[in-house]
Amino acid sequence: MKKKVFVLMFSTLLCFSAFGNPVFAEESVAVEKEGEVNPEWAPVTRIWHEFGPVAYQGRTVYIQTTKYRASFEGYVSARNVGGGLFMYEGYLYNSQGPIPIPSKVKEDK
User: Fold this and answer.
1) Does residue 96 register a pLDDT over 60?
2) How far apart (Å, rounded) are the C-alpha atoms in residues 10 and 27?
3) How many angstroms separate the CA atoms of 88 and 102, rounded?
4) What is the pTM of this model?
5) In the Cβ-directed half-sphere of 106, how many Cα atoms lie within 13 Å?
6) Tens digits of per-residue pLDDT, 21-69?
7) 3-state secondary structure the chain
8) 27, 28, 90, 81: which is closest to 61 by C-alpha?
9) 14 — phi, psi (to 5°)?
10) End-to-end CA gap in the chain
């Protein structure tokens, strides 16, 4: 029994040392300069947008902006930060694609 365990451990060690090829990896980071578009990149379909703190302007606010040489639009939602001020944040979607609308919520009166 001990001989079998010893042979198994020795053969496993031999196998790992014989086929232990080193593995190398490189990390490449693409940096985009402002206003420059790389044609190999996929088009941006949505971006995160936030503004505030501001006074309450409603549960959602419609926003249009231009970034990365594309037009984005959509609805951002209010988040209470205290003191009567609100942050508006959410995804804006590329104007050339479908844009989700906010769902209706029954508000308490």
Assistant:
1) yes
2) 36
3) 14
4) 0.54
5) 0
6) 555 555 555 555 555 655 566 678 889 999 989 999 999 999 999 988 8
7) CHHHHHHHHHHHHHHHHHCCCCCCCCCCCCCCCCCCCCCCCCCCCEEEEEEEEEECCCCEEEEEEEECCEEEEEEEEEEEEECCEEEEEEEEEECCCCCCCCCCCCCCC
8) 90
9) -65, -40
10) 80
